[in-house]
Structure prediction request, 339 residues.
Amino acid sequence: MNTRLIRAVAAALLVSGIAVSGFAAEASQPAWGAAATCTIGATLREGSRGADVVCLETQLIARGLTGVIGPDDYFGPSTTQAVITFQIVHGLAADGIVGPRTRASLATVSAGSVAPGPPVPAHVLETRTIGTSVQGRPITAVRMGTPGGRVVMIVGIIHGDETKGALVTAALRTMATPAGIDLWLIDSMNPDGVAANTRGNANGVDLIRNFDVGWNYIPRSTTNHQYSGEFPEDQPESQAIAAFVTAIQPAVGIFYHQDANVVSVNGTRRLIPTAYSKLVDQGTGSVPCSQQCTGTAGTYVNHTVAGSTTFLVELPGSASVTPAMIRRHAAAVLAVAVL
Ligand SMILES: [Zn+2]
Prediction:
């Protein structure tokens, strides 16, 4: 077995409460069961050391903040960033210092959130072809994390000329998945549009106007590029996503776009997109449609899956998208997935 597989197996065993001494020793991991109940006695800040720091870092990681280096007994910059993320998500003053309010919030699990636990190391469990494009290109979903957990679906590309979201899904494949998250990543649901650098698919259909909820006919046009198709879901790409959504029932979903630099707040649990927007320092709002916002993918998911929180993230224009921004978005996905 390679190291990654050993870690994945060990993590799975740890989830079920079975200690794996080799893994624990290798990664200097505390016992997660004990960590879940550990208490931070003092105020901590960057530079702090000791058992309280181990407890803090364990609790942060167990709450989906998998970017922490550790847990170990040193409060470094990665821990500060995770504390700030936790504070933003939980409406606390985002100062990176673990005082009484942050400690109290860490000790409480909010109603509706996924129970804290050890993350699952980065590892693709399954690669599934969920459909085929007009020109025969596969549409592929990869699965990570905890099958049977909260289902989270991330779609990097729907418009073929807005491709930076696929960097977020690529980054997520390299990151540990928070406990209890059944994560599905789709780099692109419009591979023909990517190949041709067009908004629509190979038939010129704007896939975000093609879904079978609130669909309305928008004619083919060289100016608005929002052709709805002749009938709801008459395109193989939207059919593939619709069938996949019906099969996996995402509790949380994100579709990435460009260039409006905004997060749309949609779905049942508005806390999730609102927290996401704060973590990536983007505003919230609706994205203007030059025609009509009909037959959209996000509305389809929210309508089809009871209780789903599916929303749209508009990254900035490609010239403004940096590797640091991509990492920030990927970390935000994981941080809000557990809320
Ligand atoms: Zn778009």
Remarks:
- Residues 2 and 8 are 10 Å apart (CA to CA).
- DSSP finds twelve helices and eight strands in the chain.
- The two ends are 34 Å apart (CA to CA).
